[in-house]
Q: What sequence folds into this?
C-alpha cells in the first residue's frame, strides 16, 4: 500500500492523479486534515483517511497497512520538524519500509537558514530511521513565478535584492510526477535526490527573457530588504505577506541551488517543462499590462 500526507494540497492532489495512472485506486491511502476535499478521489476508490500532523494520535491509524509512505512537507515553519518526526515514527510503527519526503534544494548546506533548517533536521531523522528513505529536494516552483514577477515588477523595473543564485526552476506538476514514480518505483538509493528543471536561471536572467517576450525592456534595480517591503506594501500587499515574500526572494537570489539534474527524466520518464513555457504563458496574459506599460505585444 502507498500512502501520502497532505493529500488535499496542490502537490498531493497532483501526486494522486499521477498514481491513479499507474496503480489501482485501492492501493492508494490519501491522508489529510480535510477528507471532504478528496471526495472525487474517494469516489474513484482511493482510500481517504483523516490525519493531522499536529495530532500524532491520528497518524498511525491513518497509515495502517502502508509499505511506502510519502510525507509532504507543510509550510508551517517552526513546526515542521515536530510534524515530520511524528509522521516518521507513526509510519515506522505502521510497518513502512521506505519513507519519502519532499525537501528543498541543498537542505543540509546551511543549518541556520530559516528555510533549510527543519528540512535538514527531517532528513537527519530519516537517516536515523533504520529503513530506506528518499528526500525529494524539489527546486523552486515555476508555478510561483507569475505571482513573484507581478509583485516585483513596477513600471518596467524589477526591484530585487542583490544576489546571483540561479534556481533550477521546476513545475509542481513535474515534482508530482517524480513523487508518484518514486513512491511506486523500484529501489532508489537511500538519500537525497535534487529534483530540478532543465535549466538554472536567476531572476535577472528571467527578466531578460520576459523583456524579449514582451518586446519591452525591463531593467533590474537592486534594493534593500526594507525598501522592497515598502514597495510591496505600496502595491497593497499586507505587511506580513510582504516580509514573507522578501524572505523568499532572498532565498531565490542568495540560496544554494544544485545545477540541473536528470532526476525528472530518470525517475518519471519525462522531460521536465522548461521555464520558458511559464514565461510565455505569463507574457501573453493581461496581467502584464498592469506593470509593464506597452505590454500585450507578446507573441
A:
Amino acid at each position: 500500500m502507498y500512502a501520502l500526507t497532505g493529500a488535499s494540497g496542490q502537490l498531493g492532489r497532483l501526486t494522486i492523479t499521477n498514481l491513479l495512472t499507474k496503480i489501482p485506486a485501492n492501493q492508494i491511502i490519501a491522508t489529510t486534515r480535510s477528507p471532504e476535499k478528496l471526495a472525487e478521489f474517494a469516489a474513484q476508490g482511493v482510500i481517504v483517511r483523516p490525519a493531522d500532523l499536529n495530532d500524532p494520535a491520528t497518524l498511525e491509524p491513518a497509515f495502517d497497512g502502508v509499505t511506502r509512505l510519502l510525507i509532504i512537507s507543510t509550510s508551517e515553519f517552526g513546526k515542521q520538524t515536530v510534524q515530520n518526526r511524528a509522521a516518521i515514527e507513526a509510519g515506522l510503527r505502521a510497518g513502512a519500509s521506505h519513507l519519502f519526503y519532499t525537501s528543498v534544494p541543498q537542505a543540509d548546506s546551511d543549518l541556520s537558514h530559516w528555510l533549510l533548517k527543519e528540512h535538514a533536521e527531517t532528513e537527519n531523522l530519516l537517516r536515523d530511521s533504520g529503513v530506506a528513505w528518499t528526500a525529494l529536494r524539489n527546486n523552486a516552483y515555476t508555478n510561483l513565478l507569475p505571482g513573484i514577477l507581478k509583485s516585483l515588477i513596477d513600471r518596467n523595473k524589477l526591484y530585487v535584492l542583490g544576489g546571483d543564485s540561479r534556481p533550477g526552476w521546476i513545475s509542481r506538476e513535474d515534482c508530482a510526477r517524480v513523487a508518484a514514480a518514486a513512491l511506486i518505483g523500484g529501489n532508489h538509493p537511500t538519500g537525497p535526490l535534487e529534483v530540478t528543471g532543465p535549466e538554472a536561471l536567476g531572476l535577472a536572467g528571467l527578466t531578460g527573457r520576459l523583456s524579449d517576450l514582451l518586446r519591452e525592456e525591463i531593467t533590474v534595480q537592486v534594493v534593500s530588504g526594507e525598501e522592497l517591503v515598502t514597495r510591496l506594501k505600496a502595491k497593497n500587499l499586507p505587511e506580513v505577506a510582504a516580509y514573507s515574500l522578501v524572505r523568499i526572494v532572498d532565498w531565490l537570489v542568495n540560496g544554494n541551488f544544485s545545477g540541473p539534474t536528470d532526476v525528472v527524466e530518470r525517475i518519471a520518464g519525462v522531460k521536465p517543462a522548461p521555464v520558458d513555457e511559464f514565461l510565455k504563458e505569463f507574457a501573453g496574459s493581461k496581467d502584464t499590462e498592469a506593470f509593464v506599460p506597452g505590454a500585450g505585444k507578446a507573441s
